[in-house]
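[agent] plan:
  1. take the single chain provided in the ticket
  2. run structure prediction with default settings
  3. attach structure tokens to the ticket
  4. add a short note for the reviewer (M.T.)
[agent] executing step 1
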Amino acid sequence: NCKYCFRDIYGTKNFLEKRNVKILLGEKIIDYNNHHIKTDKATSIHAEMVLLCKGIKPNSYFMKSFPNTIDKKGFIKINNYLQLNNYENIFVAGDVANINEEKLAQNAEHHARIIINNIKALQNNQQSQLQEYIPKPRLMVISLGSYNDILSYKRFMLTGFFPGILKSL
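[agent] step 2 finished; step 3 output follows
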């Protein structure tokens, strides 16, 4: 659980470094100008491409007029049925929901299915039929290039051709 560790169980780090990707851990970018980066550890890099990987900031500004609906991190507070807290006819799905899970499109699809079911239950005055959303780990396949991918599920990781085939399917 090291904040700055990069576990290279299946060669991902090696794969990236062979393609001239520089991986910086535990450094904060303090200046970025015209493809030149400076970090708080005095690292200076000229780069053709920079990918800033620093997490997500939920786009919840439109909810500010609803009292007590946004948590400390900016996510919208919901109950187990994906309803906005204290508003049974308003549902929340996707990255903006304060659900402790990976923010993935496939999770948003699961949210949508639950919400559809729950809207139908409310329309039919069947509150007892509301479906609860239970977050679970989902299989992720991340592309590293043509038929070179990372498959990740819980604590299991696999890289290479096989995950690439899975992703193409």
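[agent] step 4 note for reviewer: The longest helix spans residues 105-123.
[agent] ticket updated
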